[in-house]
Amino acid sequence: MKAVVCHDFGPLSDLTVEGIPVPDIRPDEVLIDVDAAGVNFPDALLVQGLYQIQPETPFTPGCEVAGTVIQAGARVSHLSVGQRVVGVCQIGGYAQKVAINAAQVMPLPDFIPSEEAAALVTAHATAHHALKQRAQLQAGETLVVTGAAGGTGLAAVQIGKAMGARVIAVCSSAEKLELAKKHGADEGINYTEEDLKETVKSLTNGNGADVVYECVGGDSFDAMSRAMAWGGRLLVVGFASGQIPRLPVNLTLVKGYSVVGVFWGVFTQKQPRVFNENMKELMGWYQQGKVKVVIDARFTLEQATQALEFMTDRKVKGKVVLTM
C-alpha cells in the first residue's frame, strides 16, 4: 500500500510517499481502507519533531480517517467488515490502509460524506471536548475564540453557539472574520487593526471573557491572559503562531481564573466512552445543521507535503483533507 513516511524529524519537504506493508491488526483493532484523512496542525509539528510526543521513526503521520472496515480483530464486536467508519489514530492516517484500536472507531452515518467525516473528527471533537468537559461552558457566557477561521477555531465558534454562548471571533483579516460570522460568531476582532485585550474588555463592558478557546499562542495568549473575567477559563488548545507562551501566574491569582489544558488525543484514549458520547452528540448536531464542516482544500496522498505547508502558512479557512 502507499503511505506518507517520515524517516527523520525535519522539514515537511523531507516527507516521502512509499510502498509499505499493510499493517497487521491485533485482536482489539480493525483495519480500515481509507477514503480520506484530515490534515491537522499537530501532524506538521509531529513531522518536524516539535510536538509534545515524538514517535519512533520511521512513521506515517495522520490522526483522523474515514473509510471502510476491511478486517476486524477477534475481540471486536461493535464493528463489522464492510461498515463505513470514522476513526482516530495518533499516527498512521496518511495511508491507504490503517490499523486502529476499535475503541477509537465508530460507525459513520450515511448522511456524512467520508471527506467531511475525516475533517469532523479532530477539529470539532477537540472544540467539543474543550468547551464541554474542560471549560464547562454555560449558555449566556461569553466565549472568545482565537484563530477563529481555522479548522478547530471555526469548530469552536459553531459549537459555542450550539451551547448557547455569545461568541467573539478573533482573526487576522476581514475575510476570515466574515467566515467566522457566517458560522455563528456574534462579534469579530481583527487583531491586526485593533488592540485585542482592550477590544475584548470593551465588548464585555469591562468584565472580560468567561471562556477563551486559545489555539494561537504567542501574543494572542498574552493578550487573552489579561482579558479574563473573574472565574473564567482560559483553554490552552495549541500554538499555531509557533510561540509557546509563558504565563505570569499572578494574573490567575488576582483575576481568579483557571488555565485549563486541552489534549484531545490523550482524552480519546483515557476516556473512550465519553469520547464516543461526544461524537454521537456532534453527529446529531451535524445532522441538525448546527455544525458544518468547511473544507478549504483537498490534496492527494502524493501532495501531503503541500497540504501541510498550506496549513502551516496559516492560509486555511476551515479544514484541509487528503483523499485517497
UniProtKB/TrEMBL annotation:
Example GO molecular function: oxidoreductase activity
Pfam families: ADH_N, ADH_zinc_N
Domain named Enoyl reductase (ER): residues: 10-322
SUPFAM superfamilies registered for this protein in UniProt: GroES-like, NAD(P)-binding Rossmann-fold domains
Protein name: NADPH:quinone oxidoreductase family protein
Species of provenance: Salinimonas iocasae
Lineage: Bacteria, Pseudomonadati, Pseudomonadota, Gammaproteobacteria, Alteromonadales
